[in-house]
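Weekly puzzle thread! Below is a chain. First person to post its structure in token form gets bragging rights.
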Amino acid sequence: MKTTYTFALEGHSRFISEVTTIRENYLDPMLESEDWDYSSKSFQDIPSLRLDFRPKALGGLEIAGTVILFLGTCFAKKVFDEFYDRLLKRPVGAMVDTIIKKVKLPDHAYLEYRDIVYFEDIDTSVVIRLLLKTTEGIDVDSLLLEGHKAAHHYLEAHGKKAQIHCHKIVDGKLDVNPSFFTSLDHIKASDKEQLQSQRIF
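Winning reply:
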């Protein structure tokens, strides 16, 4: 079974232009194989995964730009194992490291890389949000895989709690307990609410 995928980017025009070139050099060659199936429209019909691309911030953490990879698979154990094996082969860490080195992030700003996995058989999405300023001392690929394993284990143990189960990794630290959301826009609204709350106090 192929893994369906598509990309999205959030950020200013220079960020999008530079990251597009980097992505083409790292991810695109690997994803152009028989195991992966690119589809620009496959996630547009899922209401919870529709995106509003207006600028955002994350609870006091400024996001300079976000790289998003949408992935489609099934939760079933055998299929997930195959999917996980494919994730092992992606050079996401090298891509993120190159972005941070080539795209000058403002002081105190974070780069966000986000894997969004839609499990078709249980109509649930897992969002792994990786936020970092540097890759020094951080194994990006291992952290992402750890996040996917934690998300899968949680769903196995507790079942679906919301349309989106979101796990955050900030500066190399993974939150194994998910936050629950109805949509990607709900995540953005929560980020904005956290930021406003911190500014009040």
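Puzzle host: Confirmed. Bonus trivia for everyone else. The helical segments are 13-31, 77-88, 92-102, 140-158, 184-200.
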